[in-house]
Design brief:
CATH architecture: Orthogonal Bundle
Distance between the termini: 67 Å
CATH class: Mainly Alpha
Number of domains: 1
Strand order of the largest sheet: 1-3-2
Number of helices: 5
Order of helices and strands: HHEHHEEH
CATH superfamily: Winged helix-like DNA-binding domain superfamily/Winged helix DNA-binding domain
Low-confidence stretches: none
CATH topology: Arc Repressor Mutant, subunit A
Shape: globular
Mean pLDDT: 90
Strand content: 5-15%
Length: 115
Amino acid sequence: MILISIVIMLHVPIDDYVLDVLLPDLTGHDRSPAAFLTYVVLWTRLYRSEERSVAVSLQQLAELTGLSKSAVQAAIRLLKRRCLIKITKGSATAVPKYELIRHWVRRRAKKSTPG
């Protein structure tokens, strides 16, 4: 019996702004590569889910990023403070739902609107 393994590589598009501006800003200025990594993981989860927000526990984020839970917590605080994510919870103990705030998309749309 011959088993054939097929690996499907899915590509996740990332806005130029994320790589050109957020990467150096979060890793250099804020000295938080963990925040950038957490942002990219959230971006990926949201893109693949095709939803506006995604529920992910801190433990799941820690596993997905390879970071400690406390590093992820600090990264989430920074991303929230920088208004790059929105967090909602149904209750105090519920798994948080994360939504990315892509302010550069709104700015780009305003610039391209004639008038």
